[in-house]
Design a protein that fits this description.
Elements (H helix, E strand, L loop, with lengths): L1 E11 L5 H11 L3 E7 L2 E9 H13 L6 E10 L7 E3 L20 H7 L43 H8 L20 E4 L8 H10 L4 E4 L4 E6 L3 H10 L8 E4 L2 H7 L4 H8 L5 E5 L16 E5 L4 H7 L6 E6 L11 H8 L5 E5 L11 E5 L2 E6 L9 E2 L7 E3 L9 E4 L2 E4 L9 H17 L6 E5 L5 H8 L4 E5 L1 H12 L6 E11 L5 E9 L4 E7 L2 E4 L2 H5 L1 H12 L13 H12 L4 E4 L2 H11 L11 H9 L11 E3 L4 E4 L1 H12 L4 H27 L3 E5 L6 H13 L3 E3 L11 H22 L1
Bound molecules: zinc ion (ZN) (2 copies) and fe (iii) ion.
The site of fe (iii) ion has 7 residues, from α13 and β22.
């Protein structure tokens, strides 16, 4: 019995070797017909014996390439056509639909073997790739994913490459970025001397001599130097105006990583997977790492080579570990083109490793951490963006603009949320430009024209101002911590209500105060603030974030007024007096329930850090100091009312008593962390008793603290709660846009429904 069928396949099916796979499968089963990339996915028609057709449909679902991800297959019967062969057809474009886009994929083992094989024609070629690996999102200008729509369009394939591209049996069959030394992009090295013969060797020599190299990587430039050369690292740190913020490193291989850090099985798997993120691991204190790589932290952010260029940089090199930092100055976005690099980075880099393939999309390295068996994404960029988050229900098209720090934006389309790569702190016009450029590109790629725009309540965030500047759109303001909790709910497809614990540094509350230690009962449209950290007055606005001692002063004056503070000397007496006066007169003073400021306060009170050179430094150092095996904690109280108030004054008083007794920083820090974890459980139990809710979502930047996260999670579970933590979505403000998008969607849909009944 002969039949013909049409298959519509949706999901991540472009740029992942899907059509070659279909071709091979159809040929093997002796089916005729065709396959093509369409704007809405992949379209297939097959004709042959019905049992072969059935097998085709089954193997399509089970045998597809590893990075393809099928969301849906629709099979319909057709009349016979009578073809005799199977073809890959030219792409078709329908403007109304959209297709999911693959992230960039790390170099595969087959390509790596060829790269290192002197007999291979791509031996040492830094742009080797195949259908299983290579650039995707970063070279894509438009969809469908075909060479003319990528920055490979200016490199016509040579006959040898074309044969591979056209041969269904070849690993490079329809590999869009396919290239070789004869036809593809090429490297150049620019330094002091004349153009060297071998760009890689020149770059290696520069690094070995302690220089700083700017290299054009996948989603932007990186700045590299030898991570064991303290002078080089310090030079890079100073030139980047980086303060103490830790640098990430790239290691030659896993064996090299183990010399600097302690790896679990999960860490090894994450380091070597196709996304190749930066993984935060505990570091070996005795290692030969230059002290300036990550001062004051107990962790190391490390990644393995992710492109052929990185592999070549380490081949036969005298170094095994390089600092690999984003190619930018201070908080500006990562630089992507050669001219920009020379303009912005020439004060930092002593040499440039350049090439002539354009980067179409700026994408930084991703950062993850393995906690309790799960990979938790802290910065979502290369290898992850723009993977969709399936929301499980049809959405309106919404643009969510995110928060101020660690900004990302989010579009919803169909039943997906498309969260952008990490954009950064929207604190300058360069980053705002990055925001605009990403929005424009994502709108084009995903055929989105959102009329509903969600934004934070903070009027000064550039993301809010952007939203307010748009005309002809429906705007929906979303409270910051509500967005945090809903981002976690969306990740787990919860519709609520849940108990949401949102702990972070800053977010504007509905009462005009600065929130950040919040217990919300939340669903997808609204929340009720059931409890929060007791307000403290904080003088100095953003300055207070850079000077943890100011939060400490507020907490000390609140907890132990009129007591001797001679154990604590963060600033001259006159400055301390000035801040007190400002606070009393309410000059530039806010009321805050921020959990970030509580951690700042404790770090300063115990003398660990009075001035911070990057966001979260005090909390990171406080976590690093905590003794691992400590169950004791301090007291706290919960003041009745609506909302309840979590009062940490007893803990602050006990900490000062411990200090006077000469207790160790490690023990105080551990007791403090345990106190916060116990307070979370205590308040969740009260809310459960009152509201009858048993599901708890933990979100907000504070939960990047693994010591706190693990203890709060374990203690909540012991108390019978179902606990939901972030994994694919950052707990920090990088997830805010997702929460905003989901809330705006639900509010809009509810509104439409109500209007219908009116
Ligand atoms: Zn490959
Ligand atoms: Zn070629
Ligand atoms: Fe936040």
């Amino acid at each position: 019995m002969i039949a013909r069928r049409h298959l519509h396949v949706a999901g991540i099916v472009q740029g992942v070797g899907f059509r070659p796979f279909v071709y091979r499968l159809a040929s093997r089963l002796r089916l005729a017909g065709w396959v093509l990339n369409a704007t809405a996915g992949v379209e297939i028609e097959v004709e042959g014996r019905t049992e072969d057709l059935d097998q085709f449909v089954q193997l399509l679902a089970t045998g597809h390439p590893p990075f393809a991800h099928i969301e849906e297959t629709v099979v319909t019967a057709l009349a016979l056509v009578g073809e005799t062969s199977f073809q890959i057809r030219e792409s078709s474009e329908q403007k109304t639909h959209f297709v999911l886009v693959s992230p960039d994929l790390a170099t595969c083992d087959d390509c790596l073997r060829e790269l290192n094989d002197p007999a291979n024609r791509r031996f040492g070629y830094p742009f080797i790739n195949c259908t299983n690996c290579g650039p995707r999102y970063t070279i894509l200008r438009d969809i469908p994913y075909d060479r003319p729509q990528t920055s490979m369009s200016v490199f016509p394939m040579c006959p040898a490459c074309q044969v591979e591209y056209d041969n269904p049996a070849d690993r490079r069959f329809h590999a869009q970025p396919n290239a070789c030394p004869d036809c593809g992009p090429a490297l150049t090295f620019a330094g002091d001397a004349t153009q060297p013969e071998d760009a890689i060797a020149a770059a290696q020599a520069l690094l070995a001599a302690g220089g700083v190299l700017a290299l054009k990587a996948l989603g932007g430039f990186q700045l590299a130097c030898d991570a064991e050369n303290e002078g080089a690292v310090r030079q890079l740190r100073n030139a980047k105006h980086r303060g103490d913020k830790p640098f990430a490193v790239m290691a030659r291989d896993l064996a090299a990583v183990e010399q600097y850090g302690v790896l679990t099985g999960a860490d090894r798997a994450t380091l070597t997977n196709v996304r190749r993120p930066i993984v935060l691991i505990p570091r070996r204190p005795e290692s030969t790492l230059a002290p300036s790589v990550a001062p004051g932290t107990a962790t190391l952010g490390v990644m393995l080579p992710c492109t052929p260029l990185h592999h070549l940089l380490f081949r036969d090199a005298p170094f095994r570990l390089l600092v690999m930092s984003s190619g930018n100055i201070s908080e500006e976005p990562i630089v992507t083109n050669n001219e920009e690099a020379r303009r912005h980075l020439s004060g930092v880099a002593t040499g440039f490793l350049l090439h002539n393939r354009e980067i179409e999309m700026r994408v930084d390295d991703s950062v993850v951490r393995n906690v309790a068996g799960h990979t938790r994404v802290l910065r979502r960029a290369r290898g992850y963006a723009p993977l969709p988050i399936d929301l499980g229900a049809e959405c309106e098209e919404v643009l969510a603009c995110g928060a101020g720090q660690k900004n990302t934006l989010c579009l919803t389309k169909g039943h997906y949320a498309l969260l952008s790569q990490h954009i950064g702190d929207l604190s300058n016009c360069e980053t705002l430009e990055f925001f605009n450029e990403t929005l424009a590109r994502m709108r084009r790629l995903f055929h989105a024209d959102p009329r509903i725009v969600a934004h934070d309540l903070h009027p000064d965030y550039l993301s809010t101002r952007f939203a307010l500047s748009l005309e002809g759109v429906e705007r929906i303001g979303v409270q910051h911590h509500h967005a945090h909790i809903v981002s976690c709910m969306a990740e787990h497809r919860l519709s609520g209500p849940v108990i949401g614990v949102a702990f972070d540094g800053t977010g504007l509350g509905t009462d005009g105060h600065v929130w950040g230690g919040e217990f919300l009962v939340s669903d997808l449209t609204a929340f009720e603030r059931r409890a929060h950290l007791r307000y403290i007055p904080l003088a100095g606005g953003d300055q207070a974030i850079r000077e943890p001692w100011r939060a400490a002063l507020s907490y000390l004056d609140d907890a132990i007024p009129q007591q001797d503070l001679s154990f604590w000397n963060p600033a001259p007496q006159s400055t301390v007096a000035l801040i007190r006066t400002m606070r009393q007169r309410r000059i530039n003073t806010v009321q805050t329930s921020s959990c970030g400021r509580l951690f700042d306060a404790v770090a300063s009170i115990i003398g660990l850090r009075h001035h911070a050179s990057y966001e979260g430094q005090a909390a990171i150092e406080l976590e690093a100091a905590a003794a691992p095996d400590m169950e004791e904690r301090y007291a706290f109280t919960v003041q009745p009312g609506s909302p309840l108030q979590l009062d940490m004054r007893p803990a602050i008083a006990a900490i000062t008593a411990d200090l006077r007794r000469g207790e160790s920083t490690a023990n105080i820090s551990a007791r403090f962390h345990n106190t916060v974890a116990a307070a979370i459980v205590d308040i969740c139990v009260r809310i459960r008793a009152d509201a009858g809710l048993n599901r708890v979502c933990l979100s907000g930047g504070t939960f990047q603290n693994v010591y706190l996260l693990s203890r709060a999670d374990a203690a909540l579970r012991r108390s019978g709660f179902a606990v939901f933590l972030h994994a694919r979505i950052p707990p920090n403000d990088g997830g805010i846009a997702l929460g905003q998008a989901v809330i705006a969607n639900r509010i809009w849909q509810t509104r439409q429904r109500n209007e219908r009944y009116m």
